[in-house]
Every structure is written in structure tokens, then in C-alpha cells.
Fold this sequence. Notes:
- By secondary structure, the chain is α/β, with parallel strands linked by helices.
- It has a single domain (about 1-150), classed as Rossmann fold (3-Layer(aba) Sandwich).
- The protein has helices at about 35-40, 90-100, 120-125, 135-145; strands at about 1-5, 10-15, 30-35, 55-60, 75-80, 105-110, 130.
- The protein has a 7-stranded parallel sheet.
- β6 (about 105-110), α3 and β7 form a beta-alpha-beta unit.
- The relative contact order is 0.14.
Amino acid sequence: MKFVDIHHDQWRTVGGEDGPVSHPPIKIYSLLTLGQWHAVREQWPAPGTPDHKPVGVIVPNDTDIETLEADAAKLSLVVLNFPKWVDGRAYTQAHILRSRYRFQGEIRATGEVLVDMMSLLKRTGFDAVVLRGDQDRAAAERALGFFTARGHYQGDVQVTKPVFARSA
């Protein structure tokens, strides 16, 4: 799991409703709102073309993630928000991106991201987090080690089949 320090992040939100006005400087990547992305997605160069630049999109947790199905290959980052730690819709969004759309880019959790959420974040497809300000990174790293792959009965985005205990 990658722990993102927003003060040293290479992704920057872009002002204005119509998305990026010019190409970002080297090593600074455009992070767009869903509305901005919809305004520029048709013109955005596809991966593998000379003009392609990495682009990320911020998706509200009440948005139907299917709106990104056709665009998944163009995106390098999808940011999913937890407005409250008890609102788990972003878990479902991440799971669908990874398992159904085979999204290969970074899926980042933001908002009310707590240490207690680390295991489920990883299991549903998140690979980066911005912890809530009062959360301890060292504790979050320890929380990721609490359960091994054999510690879950249900499958997840990494191990899709259930793991059953061996007979003695």
C-alpha cells in the first residue's frame, strides 16, 4: 500500500470547469474532477501515443462507477472518496474497477480513511491512501500485516477463490 503525502504528491487538481488549459510541467500530473474529465476525454490522447500524458480522475462515492468503463484504459489514477468512514460505497467502486474493468492504474482512497480500514481497502483493490490527519502511518502499516492471505475465508480482488482450512 502506498501512503500519499499530499504535500509531496505528483498529482495536482486542475482549476476551471473545462479541465486542463495547457500541458502540466514534467512530473506533475493532472487530476481532474469527473465533470472536467467528461469535458476533455474525447480529445485526451490514448496511452501509447506520443502526446499521451498521465491523467487521473476524482470520482464521488455516489457516482455509478460504470461511467468510467470505457475510459479505464486512458486513466492512470482513480481517486475514490470516503466522506464518512461508515460509508463504504467506495469499496464497491474499487472492487468493480479492479475485478470487472481490469483497471491497472492506481486506486487511491481519500477522505475519512482510518487505520482500521487498511485490510479491507487492500482486499477491494485500493493500492494507495491519504490517511485522515489524525491517523498514524506506522499503525496503518502494521494493520496491513494483521491478516495473511490465509486469514480470509472470502475471495477478494487478488485471491478470487475462497481459502479453506486444510484438514489435519
